[in-house]
Design a protein that fits this description.
This protein is an all-alpha fold and 225 residues long. 81% of the residues lie in helices and 2% in strands. It has two helices and two strands. A two-stranded antiparallel sheet has the order 1-2.
Length: 225
């Protein structure tokens, strides 16, 4: 009670024992009460704000956790996509290499086909030439065989003609012999004359119309004459 106290809201120093002790003290107490009430309101507001901030912090933390989870998922998806892209790039490179190899193989096959077509064309030309040569040889062979047939026909005709002439000569000799036998009984001179005629007829059998008889000269009866 004997010490002086400082007023937080005023620079006035309270001195006990003065004549204005009761009104000032009452005012000071009222002021303190008012400040305490105001501080309580402010503290309630602070608590309320702190609670709201805590809820916001929790909500933001949850949101952040969700965002992080989404980010992790997106990172995993991105990693998977990158892996798939890398795999697809490898497949594309392999496909390009395979296509290049197929193109080289196709080019080789195309060149071989062109070579085979050229060889086939040459073979066809040779076949055509051989066909023409074979046709010429066949025609020559047919002509030769036809000539042989003609020769055989001529030989057969000649043989038949010679047979006809021989038969005519033999008939003539037979007729002459019959006549000479009839005249031999009449007289010897007639017989001698008949013998002369016989010799003459024998000589006639050796030649007739300037051609040798079959008995004097062998006839070649082969198809080649």
């Amino acid at each position: 009670m004997g010490t002086a106290r400082a007023n937080p809201s005023s620079s006035t120093v309270f001195v006990p024992g003065s004549s204005e002790e009761n009104p000032v003290r009452a005012a000071y107490i009222a002021s303190l009460e008012s400040q305490i009430s105001s501080l309580r309101d402010e503290l309630a507001t602070v608590y309320k704000t702190q609670g709201q901030n805590a809820q916001r912090l929790l909500a933001m933390t949850e949101t952040l956790r969700e965002k992080e989870e989404l980010s992790r998922i997106e990172s995993d998806n991105l990693r998977k996509c990158r892996d798939e892209i890398a795999t697809l790039r490898k497949k594309v490179e392999q496909h390009n290499e395979l296509m290049a190899e197929k193109d080289r193989t196709a080019q080789i096959l195309h060149d071989e086909i062109n070579t085979l077509q050229l060889e086939l064309t040459q073979i066809e030309e040779r076949n055509q030439t051989l066909t023409k040569d074979n046709a010429k040889l066949l025609q020559r062979w047919l002509d030769a065989k036809q000539a042989e047939v003609n020769k055989m026909n001529d030989a057969n005709d000649f043989y038949e003609e010679m047979q006809s002439r021989r038969q005519a000569v033999m008939n003539w000799r037979s007729d002459s012999t019959t006549e000479s036998e009839k005249t031999s009984d009449d007289n010897a001179p007639s017989q001698e004359l008949g013998n002369g005629q016989e010799k003459k007829s024998a000589g006639a059998t050796s030649t007739k119309d300037g051609l040798p008889s079959p008995s004097q000269k062998g006839v070649n009866l082969t198809p080649n004459g």
